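We examine the record.
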Amino acid sequence: MAYVTTDDGVKLYYEEAGSGVPVVFVHEFAGDWRSWEPQLRHFARLYRCITYSARGFLPSDVPENPEQYSQNRARDDIRSILDGLGIEKAHIVGLSMGGFATVHFGFTYPERVLSLTVGGCGYGAEPDKRDQFAEEVEIAAKRFDDLPMEESGGSYALGPTRVQFLNNDPRGWAEFRDQLVEHSALGSANTMRGVQKRRPSLYDLVDEMATISAPTLIITGDEDWPCLEPSILMKKVIPTSALAVIPNAGHTINIETPHEFNRLLQEFLHKVDVGAWKPRDPRAMASGILGTK
């Protein structure tokens, strides 16, 4: 088994496939390194693909101290993967929790980025949802504390933005659920409290996101309600970004709608690789509606 070690001594398990320009995939809370299998099978034909389990997600280390989990740690763990594999720059692709880490990595370490893909990103970001999100995160963390993973993870897999996956692809959803209940309960609870609950809102990071100069693709499902408005915010704020919305899709878009996700990502990466991705024309942000002002 292959591991890299972070600067605070946590071992992160990773796998890679393919060769060429590197692409690092960063998973969501309900996933792990296995969550990107449809992408590795497709993109390893074209790229050097790396997927890893975040701290707290087996077979990576599961630190007992909740203080070893944070948004900054999640961001810097991407850097640890690059450093451990001797990679100077990479395309970074993240979903949900991994999408937040990808955004933070983009404005903190721009010199390490070829492009950013931010999928399903926005849970708890809207200003009027912050208290509700923190309350629900604590309830979920306590369920991971108190209940078997079969029960706590199984119910998490049936959230309001997960049932689309169940309806669109019952076999795929069952595999997703079975992998989720194999997670560490301690790691899940610590990640909920250390990363999810305490991360800053995207609406408080407007200035930082506006500095992102790397080509950026934002992808969301049209029934991933907590991510729709935040995705539009990122589209407005990041001058090098494009927004794609996948119809009749929920949160877990890379495995719920893998063909569409892969198509969008491949077109994006190709444009970046050949130098055809351009920043937004500033005239598109004029305050007028019809161009009369």
